[in-house]
Amino acid sequence: MTLQEAKPLLAAIQTAYERKETLAEDITEADLNSHIAAANTRISPFDLEIRSTFHQTTRKRVYALVNSTSDPIIQLATLHTPDEIGFLKRVLDAMFETYNTSRHEIMAITSMQAVRLAKPSDSDRRETQDGAQGAAGQGLKMFEAEKMLKTLVDEGWFEKSKRGYYSLSPRALIELRGWLIETYNDVDEDDEDDDERMPRIKQCAACKEIVTMGQRCSKRSCSSRLHDICTQNFFTMQRSRNCPMCKTEWTGNDFVGEHAAPSTQKSGKRRSGGGSNANRSRMTAEETEILDDEE
Question: Which residues contact 186 (CB under 8 A, 6 or more apart)?
Fold first, then answer.
């Protein structure tokens, strides 16, 4: 929910409470924050909290009601089948592993790429049989995978861009923040592969929120990232256009998100492990060629 969406609701509440008509246009952000603070006090015993973040491209503040203790993936399991949850996890792995490398931090996926993940790989099934977390199941049919993508957009978990890329919505970034960091930032300092040593989930140097769309330092070994909407104020305050970490000149031409995708096919590779070969087998010949170049 945004401030604009909340205004009519808060106006109705204040009208009923004060017995005097309050117009939606009279509601301010301070009013909303006051109501949220009061609501959080009441709902905190139930492990619920209203949190907010900025949309990465529009800069609108988005508010969401989240469970502060429960695993968000487990929460989703109450609304979706095990096969649908399995598909969602494979899509997230693709976003944050396969299509999130030191060269191309895309962290988004096209419909075609997602549909190829409709069914679990043989490796996924073996991992499940060996006791790994999650259930592989039989997977989804292609039309079911496409329907699930639409459902995730309708439920506010995914956003679909004009170019046809699916990425996490502000709501998802609020609710999944801890889970994403815990799941994908398991860094092995002894690994010589840059993709293994670099945290996959990175925060904006300005606002400290997760960056899945924005800009990156041109030095591949540097983890500094900024949202597009944060760059102007950030560098104005810094009085220079240098990376805040390594001091390399900030070009503004090195991207995070769908603009980081090669113009033809999207590239990337998964972390070392059972799922790597399986994901590779789902790639087109052109994707595999780009992957070989990265290796």
Answer: none
